Amino acid sequence: MVPPRYKKKLDDLIAVCKKNLRSVDEDLISRAFEFSLEAHKNDIRASGEPFFQHPYEAALVAAKEIALDDVSVACALLHDVAEDTEFTIKDIRQEFGDTVADIVDGATKISDIFRSHEITQAENYRKMLLSMVNDVRVMIVKLADRLHNMRTLEFLAPEKQQRMAKETLDIYAPFAHRFGLAKIKWELEDLAFKHLHRREYEEIAHTIKSKRREREHYIRKFTVPMEKQLKEQGLTFVIEGRPKHLFSIYNKMVKRAKPIDEIYDMFAVRIILDTQEVNDCFTVYGIVSGIYKPIPERFKNYISIPKKNGYQSIHTTVLGPEGKMVEVQIRTLAMHEIAERGVAAHWMYKEGASTLDTELQSWISWVREIFEQKDDEAPRELMESFKLNLYQDEIYVFTPKGDLKILPKGATPVDFGFEIHSNVGSHTIGAKVNGRIVPLNTILLSGDQVEIITSKKQTPNPGWEKFVVTHKAKQHIRRWLKEESRKHVDDGKEVWDKKIKKAKLHINDDELVRFIHSQKMDNLQQFYLAIANESVNVDQLIELLVVGSKPPAVSVPAGTESGNTLFQKFVDSARDIASGISLFGSNDSFMHHYAKCCNPIPGDEIIGFVTRGEGIKIHRKNCRNVVAMRMKDEERIVDVAWPPATDAEFIAGVRVSGHDRSGLLNDITNSISGYNNTNIRSVTINSKDTLMEGNFILYVKNIEHLTVIVDRLRRVKGITRVERFEE
Question: Is the domain of 79 the same as that of 30?
């Protein structure tokens, strides 16, 4: 039983439902009202009012501003019950049946869809969209919920205001756009704009308000001659000044870098015809164009080619009195209903089951196509495609046979090819736009006729991913690249298996993983791919493994205690591997690597450290890491010496600092390369105010070579310090 003080609220809600909905189950609305009221009786909102006020206001939005059906209104009343009270979805199912329970459950599951964690975010989007595909009313309830929350946002903490406002702009307003709920979309955008850019919002709002009377006077002056001729034609119509939304004005100001006074379509009117004849819209366009000079490039015919959300209207911009530009929209009453109510105007009933018409169903199919394919697409890529496709302007292009294809703005011939069929897109080798051969990254424009040239030998190009914009194209390209990568991994593994078999090596996956980590590779896939791409030398890798794995084969040199030391294994197995470094002053050469922590060069005093799998690491004797090595593994330290002479080049680092000036970097590089054609591997320069510091990585032959370079740098004007650095 509804308490007396809430009786009027229930009566008001049912009255709104009866006014706006095709049919109303008063019992359903009453029971949902009572259930929600009871569930939330002890809850208080941040504003201090009873929590029940929120689901009630959301239900009013669903009944009045969206006006889909009575089930949506009941679900709006119940949408927070399972999330915020002791009642569960099971309780709702028992009381209201499966349909209501499933919608409330869908709305509950997606209530926290927008968080900073990409994986959670992407998976929640997927859940939300799949719930919505099953019953579009899930999103209707969420939009009603969000609109009322945005209307009362000032009661929340500033950080939460910012998060919810951004979430609204990124997700809810685009959804309202796709559902054709124009009024909901505009209000969500303006409310989000208010909290994200308050100063700009208030400036624009003040300007609009201060010029309201002037604007209304101008619109009246503009419409009088049109009204006269429309009446003479016997047309029934309404002309209204179309309200400009603050967020759209702000976007135009930012995009065009112009002040508000220079935004041309501040003046806008809408002509709504009470007629079933679509051709009457074109008659009206002729009348408007006869009175005021039209601007041809601002004409858009959304009647012949509707938007994906079913929107239809003629848009034209004309030069009105005093040379001011005015945007005019012309549509029938039925078109206006679809433009204002979107999905609700598409909703139809058939034998008690709700279905959608073909236009909305095509969009639902798009959602399903994207989000039911749970492949291994990265969450960030999924989110990128979702946001791009959800809220993008559309272009209209044609096949050579005249078939229409609707693509997002910025689409290319490759996107067009994939829109026709995945095989056409994958085998695209060229394209003609309006009869002329164009590059595949050409941006298509509305009205273009596109012909795709294919070849069976052509496969997707990795570079395509950088310029395609449709999810379908991106998904197919990424999938193909991953499949190719897997093939290369298999090829690389086959090469590796043959090599280690030939070398009579036995190594398990764990040992191999440890080995490839020592080679600065992340995983086996990367390792096998590197082999397939020939970016690593397999024979050298085998040698490194041999060094660390062969058992001792000769006697122990004097001075060692055991023939089983790691060093002895190295000595016994690696004497035949070519090297320049000599060990113990002998003529024997051994596999070695130069330590990156100190980058020794000929002339430096050096020492060797026997590693597991990488041969001997050569360090400078004064390297800070050598001290730790001596303390930990003294037996692995060996004496080594440079060869008498070598033509090899070695990496060395030089750090310079001084006073910055014009041409300083040029003088430094000339000073380095001017001696013995010294090659510079890399340069890093940082400057602040008048000071600079730079790191130069060079190729030098020995310590004398490096010393000359350092001396030359010290003579460069402005340089105050030059030193060798290790890492």
Answer: yes
Q: What pLDDT is recorded for position 381? A: 54
**Residue 83 designated active-site:** yes
Q: Count how many residues are written for the chain.
A: 727
Stretches where the chain sits below pLDDT 50 are: 112-122, 348-357, 359, 370-379, 391, 548-579, 585-587
| pLDDT score recorded for residue 322 | 86
Last residue of a domain, one of 341, 375, 403: 341
Q: Which H or E run includes 330?
A: strand 325-332
User: Rounded to the nearest 5°, which phi and psi values hold at 673?
Assistant: -70, -20
Active site residue 84: yes
Distance CA 683, CA 699 (A): 13
Q: Is residue 49 domain-shared with residue 147, that is, in the same domain?
A: yes
| 506 shares a domain with 417 | no
Residue 473, domain member (yes or no):
no
Phi, psi (degrees; rounded to nearest 5) at 539: -65, -40
Rounded to whole angstroms, the Cα distance separating 199 from 207 reads 12
Q: Same domain for 265 and 400?
A: no
Instruction: Examine residue 700 and state whether it is found in any structural domain, yes or no.
Output: yes
> pLDDT value at position 550?
41
Calpha distance 184→174 (Å, rounded): 10
| CATH number of the structural domain spanning residue 117 | 1.10.3210.10
Distance CA 440, CA 412 (A): 7
Stated as kind and residue range, the H or E segment containing 617 is strand 616-620
Place of tokens 């016994």: 572
Let me know: does 680 contact 694? Beta carbons within 8 Å. no
Rounded distance between C-alpha atoms, residue 673 and residue 665, angstroms: 12
Q: HEC profile for 336-393?
A: HHHHHHCHHHHEEEECCEEEECHHHHHHHHHHHHHHCCCCCCCHHHHHHHHHHHHCCC
268 occurs within a structural domain: yes
Residues spanned by the domain of 673: 650-725
How far from 116 is each of 376, 439, 517, CA to CA, in Å? Answer: 20, 38, 31
Query: Do 24 and 106 fall into the same domain?
Result: yes
Mark whether 122 and 170 lie in a shared domain.
yes
pLDDT per residue as tens digits for the range 359-375: 455 555 555 554 444 44
* 595 shares its domain with 455: no
Residue 567: per-residue pLDDT = 36
Clarify whether residues 423 and 510 are in a common domain.
no
Report the number of distinct structural domains present in the chain.
6
For 620, the token pair is 């400078």
Residue 63 per-residue DSSP state: I
25, 38, 84, 649: which one is catalytic?
Answer: 84
Residue 187 in any domain: the answer is no
Q: CB within 8 A of 464, min separation 6: which ones?
A: 414, 440, 473, 477
Supply the pLDDT for residue 556.
Answer: 35
In single-letter form, the type of residue at position 33 comes to F
Determine the pLDDT at residue 581: 64
- Provide the CATH number for the domain around residue 422: 3.10.20.30
How high is the pLDDT of residue 561? 40
The set of residues, in sequence order, having a beta carbon less than 8 Å from that of 476 and lying 6+ positions away, is 418, 422, 425, 426, 460
User: Which one of the listed residues 25, 34, 38, 83 is annotated catalytic?
Assistant: 83
